[in-house]
Amino acid sequence: MDLAALLDRIADDVAPEIGRGFVADYIPALARVEPERFGMAVAEVDGAVHGVGDWERPFSIQSMSKVFTLALALSHGDGLWARVGREPSGNPFNSLVQLENEDGIPRNPFINAGALVVTDELAQRGDAAAALLEFLREESGRADIGIDPEVAASEADHADRNRALAYFMASYQNMLHPVPAVLDQYVRQCSIAMSCADVARSALFLARHGVRNDGSRLLGLSAAKRVNAVMLTCGTYDAAGEFAYRVGLPGKSGVGGGILAIVPGRCAVCVWSPCLDARGNSVAGVAALDRFTTLTGWSIF
Ligand code: GLU
What we know:
By secondary structure, this protein is α+β, with helices and mostly antiparallel strands. The protein has one domain (3-296): DD-peptidase/beta-lactamase superfamily (Beta-lactamase), CATH 3.40.710. It has helices at 3-14, 28-31, 65-74, 97-101, 112-122, 128-140, 149-157, 160-171, 179-190, 196-202, 204-207, 221-234, 240-246, 283-296, and strands spanning 22-23, 39-44, 49-53, 59-60, 146-147, 192-194, 251-253, 258-263, 267-272, 275-276. Strands 3-2-9-8-7 form a 5-stranded antiparallel β-sheet. It has a 3-stranded antiparallel β-sheet with strand order 4-6-5. A two-stranded antiparallel sheet has the order 1-10. Strand 8 (258-263) and strand 9 form a beta hairpin. The two termini are 19 Å apart.
């Protein structure tokens, strides 16, 4: 398969979709991104990386960070599952309603409440955002990956909903650390800026059933399977069914317009285009992944 040629074709095919939808504007720093951007990268398990468009341009990874923090938390054991579930929520990613009905246990690690629990779990070993940055720098081989300070400051200024979720869980004894400390680490993990190439490279351990780029093992086979399974069922906000239907791969999106998808045994794919649909997934990004699995036949089904 000539992946470079394939990516060129996909970029042509989805060109009419680029700019359709709306750039996330809940914080000013994200609203300023250029809507017409599009990039896509495929990292193969042998380390080869191919890309098209803006595939080397950093963007705000936002909720794609949740895949990596989940994996890091599970690398220390599966105690996390006593504090967070693994069912799709069927509610918006920042909903408070379900938490009350379910006694402060978030439905899954990819809604905001669940991701805050994961960050809190990691915080037992030090700053979660720092641990995440270290991991991403090692996997991508890029020491210059960092936190966008403007996005982080803007997120921190608009964090009342996440703060409410965290305090609510604290009232159910489902926060180990003070809420301001957990929130600070969560905001910084979401504000990391990376390119499609670096995200795809950093996620290869999920395509290799838990094995990192240096050959060491981050996750056992079961834990790697579980991260992929939760991505498939819960990774694309309230549209995981539609995403599985169209793309047929484990995926995790972020409001920055990125989507990470995994083809187990073969490759990790990251696509970025900032305009989102009503459920928060990149319009051109979903279309590109749809074309990718259609043209390659590499869905998991
Ligand atoms: N920083 C965002 C928040 O917590 C992440 C949103 C997302 O990408 O889903 O609200």
